[in-house]
Design a protein that fits this description.
The chain is of the alpha/beta class and 242 residues long. The protein has a single domain, classed as Ribonuclease Z/Hydroxyacylglutathione hydrolase-like (Metallo-beta-lactamase, Chain A, 4-Layer Sandwich). Helices cover 17% and strands 34% of the residues. The strands form three sheets. Strands 7, 8, 9, 10, 11, 12, 15 and 16 form an eight-stranded mixed beta sheet that branches. A seven-stranded mixed beta sheet has the order 6-5-4-3-2-1-17. The chain has a two-stranded antiparallel sheet with strand order 13-14. A hairpin with a 2-residue loop joins strand 2 (24-29) and strand 3. It is globular. It starts with a strand and ends with a strand. The structure holds zinc ion (ZN) (2 copies). One zinc ion binds next to loops.
Amino acid sequence: MIIEFPGTRGEIEESSAEHKYHSSLIIRYKKTGALIDFGLKYNPQLINKINDFDFILITHAHPDHYIWTVEDEDRINIPVYLTRIALDYGKYKPKDYRIFQTGKKYSLKCLDITIYKVIHSLRCPAVGYKIKGDKTIIYAPDIVDFEEDKGTVLKDVDLLIADGSSLNINMVRRKEGKLFGHTRVKTIIEWCKKYNIGSLIVTHCGKQIVNMDKKELASRLEEYTGGKIDAIVAYDGYRMEL
Ligand SMILES: [Zn+2]
Ligand SMILES: [Zn+2]
């Protein structure tokens, strides 16, 4: 399985050479090519070959993940999978949209994909994807927590790819008893320890990570993981083979 990050930037004003484009993920496994999320500021390298992917998965309808919320994009002919609630939130719609049910497992070409509800936005509910080929990864770029028990969701996961909106600053808010926002990388590292996930890749980088000195960031990650988890911050164009 090969994964690649065309973009790693969250919904922030700041941008850097390493975090210029909105977060998305490419997965290649056997003959399957999948793209997760296609936001407003997508990597321009994506568009020319976009129809070579087998499908696109959308986590939620915030415009940094789903361009159709604010702009029409009619060059994309491949299936775009999303929840009904995400589809209805957008002003525009992909040409070939397909509705996913949360809590279900789908086999799309060579990949098994399970959709989990995540706590993130009250108006724009989000999901995280568990994707299984020869390895199992989770992609949850915007998350306060999983709605379902993490013992189930994070079982037998090789790699967690998750929200870098904040390293250690509280970005969780509450309205009428409901949480929304983004959890901290520090907390995500604790999930990895508790549920035996050996590798973490941080994406959807927020202001704190984008502005932080590289050495400082590395030493914070080292401190939080205690050397037990292999944790890195992805950058635009980062590619790895699992
Ligand atoms: Zn986002
Ligand atoms: Zn969001």
